[in-house]
Amino acid sequence: TASAEAKEGEGIRTGWPTLDRFYRVTPGSLLTLGAATNVGKSTVITSWLWGMAQRGTPVGIISVEDTVEDFGIKMLAAAAGVDPSILWGMTLTADDVRRVQAAIETANVPLRFTWVRTRKLQTVLDRMDMMVRQHGAKVIAVDFLQAIMGPRQKEKRDEIDHILESMIAKAGSLNVGLVVASQLNRSSTSEDAEGKARVPGLSALKESGTIENRSQCVVLLHRDKPTSSTISVKLAKVKRHSAGAEFKVRRAGGNGLLYEVAEDLAETPW
Asked: What angle do CA 35, 245, 31 make, to 5 degrees?
């Protein structure tokens, strides 16, 4: 049974309070998440959809990058409340083992994951259909746009536009909210003269003008420094609201997920 917030006409929260004040995922809407490589796109999507699923909203994640094994480790860590690096390194304590075992036995969240090994657009569209027909998904996330292989076009930009428009049309026909991860141009993430990372803007969205035009909300991520433990978030576009709100997120709770950081640096719960 879907949660109350997933009912038609009511938006679905991401779990980040600042973002949720300005935007909620609704059927047919597009939420775009932009970031450079290794900033945390996949972890953000996992954090958002895990939170939605925990609150009872059926969701699905389609990846053309992370394998089933990669995602499985992330979800097991989230469910058990352990750091995923512990699972990767197989350095579990007796207490970790008990928590993981309990998570396996009790996990019952309406989240489905699929890996598209071929990266083909038609397979992504077919998996979107499957997520809704078989699992009743209300929100589908695709990770990530530029890695999908669509029909060859003269310009890469045209190919990306076609891929995005196809996914938007499919989400509309299925009446689900769509979350899409997108790469940013490398030049937009370079450092300034003082060695501080530049804050990306909408023009940094890689190879597509359609992303900015078709998104109801665009969330951009960056790290002030490569070694920073926090990720800076900017709401670059929010339909019917003023854009520009900024806040920070970081891993908290020992489960590998990202939570918004309050001004006093206390973690904000889901």
From this structure: 50
